[in-house]
Please model this.
Amino acid sequence: MSVNQANASVHDKTDIQLSVRNLCVDYITSNGDVRAVSNVSFDIGRGEVFGLAGESGCGKSTVAFSVCRLHKPPAFISGGEIIFNGRDILKFDDEQLREYRWKESAMVFQSAMNSLNPVLTLEEQFCDVLLAHTNMTRQECIKRAGQLLEVVDIHPSRLSDYPHQFSGGMRQRLVIAIALALNAKLIIMDEPTTALDVVVQREILQKIYQLKEEFGFSILFITHDISLMVEFCDRIGIMYAGELAEVAPAKNILTKPNHPYTEGLGNAFPPLHGEKKRLVGIPGTPLNLFEVPVGCRFQARCPYVKDICRKEYCKLTEVAPGEFSACHLHKDGIVDIIALEKQPVQG
Amino acid sequence: MGFILRRLVFYFGAFLVAVVINFFLPRMMPGDPVDAMLAQGARFTAEQIANLRLTFGVDQPLYQQFFTYLGDVFTLELGHSTFFSNMPVSEVLANAFGWTLFLTGTATILAFMFGATLGIVAAWYRGGKFDSIASPLSLVLQATPQLVFGIVVLFSLGVTWDLIPISYAYDPELTPDFTSWEFLKNVLLHAVGPIFCIFIVQLGGFLVPMRNNMINLLNEDYITMGKAKGLSNIRVMLNYGARNAILPSVTALSMALGFVVGGALVVEVIFNYQGLGSVLFNAIVNRDYQLIQGQLLIMTVFMLAFNFLADVLYVFLDPRLRKGGK
Model:
């Protein structure tokens, strides 16, 4: 295994917060085990925003949950390492895991509406996490909770309220405030704005960005909204059928895609500026993970498919400094997708 | 406050309906108190029969009896029993009330406590050994009639092994004295059998719904978030899971407590326990209209009172309902 193949990272060793190595997650089904996440490797640097994008069911949330070991049966991690600050969290016992959760890596869930306990006051939901991880007294916890509310622009007097008394956007800010409670070094955000309208989305994202600048945590950002991601992330990993298809700096991912799938995703989004273009979808349907083909997983939908794609599996490989691709065409530098794009595409 | 007031109005309406039914139901059975006496071999002359009917008021037209009854209900005059040697109904009921409350109340609360706890554990370790044994077993127990448990317990523990007394609430030779430990011990010993029979049948009724609620809730995001927060398992299980899953069970408990004064008729009769169940049984057999009415009336009042309590508790337990009344 070559060095650059394993490390989809541009960071030097000391600067890495989270390092996922060859992560494999399987789901047990009645038709046999399905590998939902297959050999995924990436690094997240300190203070970096790393995005994972891909269509529904590609395994991006499974990766996110695995990083906190929150995956539920029938899912299980069948291989790989998740190194956080030099320690493999997959080797943690229950108590170590309990301490690691939220203190080291907190999580903001997709559905703000449902991620707060409806029968406990906010005060209780702030205090339980503070009491579980620190030696603070209850009074100190309440004070800290009040400060956290102020950070997300909610008045501390509302600590005694219940979740149903807040709007959707406010609830998402509350969850973010809880996520900040222990100064976690990594915050995993699993589609944090999907359930919100675009105005509130922007508001929340700006808040998150501002907090990130202030507190310096890293973010693992999951979404299927690639345009949002390009704006928000430093680097982006594109997942397809449980594998990383491409990892590249956010600014390059749409302009200079290194994988036909990324290119397809880019074509499926309308540009904000410039002439009107006909949007082009990616033909075909996502891969059925029961029928993984020999060779590249994207072969059936790829417009540039070659013989080698049907025969030989292509690992994620560095194709340019800081840019990684799992495509034969790019690895060997045979084609330039931008050049290919000039050819007429069937609509 | 509007919420509670509206509930109260509703309960008053329900009470009126129940009062009417309580009057007509016993009278729809064939025969009257005098017939019942004759059927049990009493010998009366025609004149005596007419006098008895006059005394019991059953010679009057039904509508007239009904209005007398309505007046009595609202003046809390329950009349006299025809079967228990003309004792006031209120006295007959009062004597039995405490015993039943003790017997069925204890059994119901125990069943709730054990059922809910075991349901929580079964749901948390869903599909595990405990769940695969306890959950189906409790359904089997629930489906078994009290009669079966009554007779099995009576014969095995009571007769064959002679571990528990088989009759009465306490030894008849003892003078009731609730300050003496001897007497209380005797009462407890007599209650073991009946309480166990009522408990075991009710257990599944609390365990299975609790387990199912909890399993549904365990997929909620706030449970995952509770785990993600690094809280201890017990805290997530109780404060995040059970605290939400218990809401429907509170209604079930309240309903069950409302049924408490109905007595466990079958169990009380089997163990010859002097509770309201035995009283009702005797009253029905002897067409003791006043007593049936009185018993049904307290059952109604209890049922409604505990339903109301459930409403109030619900508002207390579920913050989402607190603003809902406006």
Summary: The mean pLDDT of chain A is 85. Chain A touches chain B through 32 residues (CB under 8 Å). The longest helix of chain A spans residues 198-215. Residues 260 and 336 of chain A are 10 Å apart (CA to CA).
